[in-house]
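Residues determine shape. Take a concrete instance:
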Amino acid sequence: MKPRVLYIEDNEQNFYLVHYILSARGFEVRRARDGREGLQATAEGPFDLILLDIQLPVLDGYAVARALREKEDLRSIPIVALTSYAMPGDREKALESGCTGYLEKPIDPATFAQSIEGYVRKAPEVIDP
């Protein structure tokens, strides 16, 4: 069975690149375009991983991560912030909001899928790639 990823991302180009890379590695990638849609999309699970942009319309990524962690059935799913926020403290803020990991955009296509595979294989704890 293909690993299932929910990618909550409002930018078309970012979604396309991630979808292309992960699909080529055998992942099924579902998209949500804003924070509220992302929360609703979790009902279509189960998902093996949630990729989460931080700068989202409707609800930002921090609020989405906190809301996801409040749902008992989603607590064990790794949530990885995939964001262009790269200022000091942004990583910590994402982890404090409930994210399992943090990856910066722009992604490196040569190593991205391997990083994601590592999150899917590991237990739900704070992971430092």
In short: The radius of gyration is 13 Å.
